[in-house]
């Protein structure tokens, strides 16, 4: 690999690819053209991201030396791998000198990736070829989001309580995935890690992106089926892609135009998912809805072609690049996709609008934020004592069963 | 996705030496070994070479590179317990320096990694000073020596100058080719290891082995040693047997010049030394500087390791094996000793191993870029032989010795006295003269 005489080429290639990477992370030009990097420098704006890249790279490589078992054992759900790096005057350019990386239940998540049709090498490449990008999206309690550079995966920063809850539900979640053959609207959990940099611990969980890695989303909703305080704030509306809520959806007269067959399949999946969540006493989850407007996207593409060389666009957490796909990214299908088209094996949540829809659209809909357990909530509610306006009272009286029913009914309604 | 390689291939590689050994390239490396420490070594080399592949090769080494290290601590819980211990540590000293040295010694990092990780390293019968443990890579290209922490300290002391020396002689030396230096911690126990290129051939068996210092005191193999499959004979044995190394004048000249450079001291300062190096090199007097180098650094007590491959005997042994079939199993001591041991398959080489070159080798033939220390006997030699000769055990520093000698106080028979009065300069001179005399 490091042959005499190629060292210079390697240095040049490394700097060229780092330039390419920094360009890739900033611009959204149509001609984005990603050169495959043989040398992964794990270069990122934030040491935490470098450690994430390094860690995923390490963990997938380690797993490639561990035989795939015929079936998972109970111990696999309690397992972890931990590694601590302490370098001295070595590899200081892109990595911190001291960091720790812990992966929870490696064999379980490897199995889940397989069941969700994700190849470990592809997963590795998505997370390591170039640094994950910051996402404007905010979860509950201001959780931080990143997406993989190719927008296939979402990396969410979670709390240690979330990690504990994940461990509690993991066996049953895995079993559920086995039974539904990976065909679900629940989050596809693909990896769970703890990173320690400068003594600070950060917990991260990787899921498949609900939205498309290619088609941009111009409108986004977070729906719970509740009507209290379900409106986007002014601050939120000022964002590039605000997260609207139930009231906005109703007030906007927003509709989801999908045909009978799609609707039936969707609701069937949703019903099973929501039943599962209720059984586990989980609640406060949402349906994330993203809408891709085909004509609007075509228009935007024409505009960006005109402005191409000068502009640098901000990443909005939605689509990356516009069709046709860069041919050098092996993860994209080989033939270019026409407007509004998608590969259902990659954009698994995508549903086309029906023929009688006023606009040609593609909808991305899935369940998110499933880690809130009822018992934990009740404890917190009792500790708080005071019940603010009607909200606190209403929230603390709804139980998971009721929550799931109300949720399901609301979604059913909006699809008609 | 990852293939499910059985354990059959690596186990058979370490135990049997049948001609039909047939090594399948493993995509999945399980790091399976008879001992946890070997698994950790395999894992560690695999990890560090992979890490280095993500660190760009610098234009030149910096002073900090000679003080650097990488350390990693693994703590697994209910994961990957089959082949590796759950907890272990792996430290690599001066990773950039050794990568650079590997390059200068024309060893590709991927090949290095494969040699040390595709199958577990093998135990070697050989014992160094103080019973240091030896291992060889499964393909016999590299030797792994367990060293002390004092040796590690000494390595750090000489590393800059050693590297400079290697740069100047373009890797053309009889000194050990240091390729990697590690500290492994398993079950709380720390083990230090140094990897060097094997002096002997990865293919041709060595039938007789000598460790020569040029000293005549206590330089005889013990009875216990002689009982081994490939005993290490010494100076007196060599002389008493009338052993000859018939390499011919050209080879001798070339060899001695390398040796001298490695071993002897001159009155000149280092700058002039460099000039001499250039001069010597221009005349292909490569050997000269090696010996000079060691004396300059006040290193002594090194040996010339000599291995002799008897071409006719090897041909005979091969025919015996073919006649005897696949049942026989031979012990492997990793250092090319014994009847069929040391060679990894007999010619023709297994085509499945990409590390063996494409062409077939005739009896007594070798690839000089792989078996870098091999010298053929000259045409008019009595026996058709191949000699492997290089300097080993270069980490004893004179000052450390003096301290130890003074601490010991008592001088046993003549030996202690003689040893403590010879200084590095005298040692190198005596060493060089002895070697000159035994070559013809």
TrEMBL record, chain A:
Domain PIPK: start-end pairs: 44-415
CDD domains: PIPKc_PIP5K2A
Biased composition range(s): Acidic residues: 300-315
SUPFAM superfamilies xrefs: SAICAR synthase-like
Molecular function terms, GO-annotated: 1-phosphatidylinositol-4-phosphate 5-kinase activity; 1-phosphatidylinositol-5-phosphate 4-kinase activity; ATP binding
Annotated keywords: ATP-binding, Cell membrane, Cytoplasm, Kinase, Lipid metabolism, Lysosome, Membrane, Nucleotide-binding, Nucleus, Transferase
Name this polypeptide is given: Phosphatidylinositol 5-phosphate 4-kinase type-2 alpha
Organism: Sphaeramia orbicularis (orbiculate cardinalfish)
UniProtKB/TrEMBL annotation, chain B:
Entry's Gene Ontology BP terms: phosphatidylinositol phosphate biosynthetic process
InterPro entries named in the record: PInositol-4-P-4/5-kinase_C_sf, PInositol-4-P-4/5-kinase_core, PInositol-4-P-5-kinase_N, PInositol-4/5-P-5/4-kinase
Pfam families found in the cross-reference section: PIP5K (PF01504)
Gene Ontology annotations for the cellular component aspect, listed alphabetically: cytoplasm; plasma membrane
UniProt KW keywords: ATP-binding, Cytoplasm, Kinase, Lipid metabolism, Membrane, Nucleotide-binding, Transferase, Transmembrane, Transmembrane helix
All copies of domain PIPK, residue ranges: 33-439
Alphabetized PROSITE patterns for the sequence: PIPK
SUPFAM superfamilies: SAICAR synthase-like
E.C. number: 2.7.1.149
Protein name: 1-phosphatidylinositol-5-phosphate 4-kinase
This protein's encoding gene: pip4k2b
């Amino acid at each position: 690999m490091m042959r005499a005489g190629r060292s210079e080429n390697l240095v040049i290639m490394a700097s060229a690819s780092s330039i390419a990477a920094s360009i890739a992370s900033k611009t959204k030009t149509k001609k984005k053209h990603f050169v495959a990097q043989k040398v992964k420098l794990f270069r990122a704006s934030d040491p935490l991201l470098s450690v994430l890249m390094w860690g995923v790279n390490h963990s997938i490589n380690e797993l490639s030396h561990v035989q795939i078992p015929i079936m998972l054992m109970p111990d696999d759900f309690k397992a972890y791998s931990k590694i601590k790096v302490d370098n001295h005057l070595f590899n200081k350019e892109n990595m911190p000198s001291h960091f720790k990386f812990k992966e929870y239940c490696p064999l379980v998540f490897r199995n889940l990736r397989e069941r969700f049709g994700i190849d470990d090498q592809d997963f590795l490449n998505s997370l390591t070829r170039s640094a994950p990008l910051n996402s404007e999206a905010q979860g509950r309690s201001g959780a931080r989001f990143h997406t993989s550079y190719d927008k296939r995966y979402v990396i969410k920063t979670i709390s240690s309580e979330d990690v504990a809850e994940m461990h509690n539900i993991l066996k049953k979640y895995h079993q559920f995935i086995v039974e539904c053959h990976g065909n679900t609207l629940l989050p596809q959990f693909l990896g769970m890690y703890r990173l320690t940099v400068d003594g600070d611990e950060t917990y991260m969980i990787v899921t498949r992106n609900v939205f498309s890695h290619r088609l941009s989303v111009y409108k986004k909703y977070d729906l719970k089926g509740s009507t209290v305080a379900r409106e986007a704030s002014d601050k939120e509306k000022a964002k590039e892609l605000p997260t609207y809520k139930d009231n906005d959806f109703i007030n906007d007269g927003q509709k989801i135009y999908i045909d009978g067959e799609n609707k039936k399949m969707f609701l069937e999946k949703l019903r099973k998912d929501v039943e599962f969540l209720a059984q586990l006493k989980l609640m406060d989850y949402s349906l994330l809805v993203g809408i891709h407007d085909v004509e609007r996207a075509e228009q935007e593409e024409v505009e960006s072609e005109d402005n191409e060389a000068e502009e640098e666009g901000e990443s909005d957490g939605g689509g990356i690049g516009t069709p046709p796909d860069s041919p050098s990214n092996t993860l994209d299908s080989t033939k270019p996709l026409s407007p509004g088209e998608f590969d259902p094996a990659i954009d698994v949540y995508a549903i086309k609008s029906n023929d009688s829809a006023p606009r040609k659209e593609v909808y991305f809909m899935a369940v998110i934020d499933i880690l809130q357990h009822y018992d934990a909530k009740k404890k917190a509610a009792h500790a708080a004592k005071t019940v603010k306006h009607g909200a606190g009272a209403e929230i603390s009286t709804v139980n998971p069963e009721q929550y799931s029913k109300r949720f399901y009914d609301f979604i059913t309604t909006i699809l008609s | 996705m990852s293939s499910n390689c059985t354990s059959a291939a690596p186990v058979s590689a370490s135990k049997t030496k049948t001609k039909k050994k047939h090594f399948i390239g493993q995509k999945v490396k399980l790091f399976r070994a008879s001992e946890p420490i070997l698994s950790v070594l395999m894992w560690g080399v695999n990890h560090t070479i992979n890490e280095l592949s993500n660190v760009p090769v610098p234009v030149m080494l910096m002073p900090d590179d000679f003080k650097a290290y990488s350390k990693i601590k693994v703590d697994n819980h209910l994961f990957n317990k089959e082949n590796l211990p759950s907890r272990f540590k792996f430290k690599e000293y001066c990773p950039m320096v050794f990568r650079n040295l590997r390059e200068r010694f024309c060893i590709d990092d991927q090949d290095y990694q494969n040699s040390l990780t595709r199958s577990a390293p093998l135990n070697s019968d050989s014992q160094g000073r103080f019973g240091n443990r030896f291992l060889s890579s499964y393909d016999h290209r590299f030797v792994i020596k367990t060293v002390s922490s004092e040796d590690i300290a000494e390595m750090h002391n000489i590393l800059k100058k050693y590297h400079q020396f290697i740069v100047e002689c373009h890797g053309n030396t009889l000194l050990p080719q240091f390729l990697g230096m590690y500290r492994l911690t398993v079950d709380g126990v720390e083990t230090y290891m140094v990897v060097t290129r094997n002096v002997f051939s990865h293919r041709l068996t060595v039938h007789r082995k000598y460790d020569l210092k040029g000293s005549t005191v206590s330089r005889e193999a013990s009875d216990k040693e002689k009982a081994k499959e490939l005993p290490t004979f010494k100076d007196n044995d060599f002389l008493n047997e009338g052993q000859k190394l018939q390499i011919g004048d050209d080879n001798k000249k070339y060899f001695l010049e390398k040796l001298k450079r490695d071993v002897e001291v001159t009155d000149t300062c280092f700058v002039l030394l460099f000039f001499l190096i250039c001069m010597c090199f221009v005349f292909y007097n490569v050997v000269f500087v090696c010996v000079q180098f060691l004396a300059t650094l006040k290193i002594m007590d090194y040996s010339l390791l000599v291995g002799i491959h008897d071409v006719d005997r090897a041909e005979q042994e091969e025919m015996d094996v073919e006649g005897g079939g696949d049942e026989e199993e031979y012990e492997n001591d990793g250092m090319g000793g014994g009847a069929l041991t040391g060679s990894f398959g007999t010619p023709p080489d297994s085509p499945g191993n990409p590390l063996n070159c494409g062409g077939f080798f005739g009896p007594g033939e070798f690839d000089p870029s792989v078996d870098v220390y091999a010298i053929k006997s000259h045409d008019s030699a009595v026996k058709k032989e191949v000699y492997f000769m290089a300097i080993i055990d270069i980490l004893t520093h004179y000052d450390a010795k003096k301290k130890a000698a003074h601490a010991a106080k008592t001088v046993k028979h003549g030996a202690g006295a003689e040893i403590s009065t010879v200084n590095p300069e005298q040692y190198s001179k005596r060493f060089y003269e002895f070697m000159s005399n035994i070559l013809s």
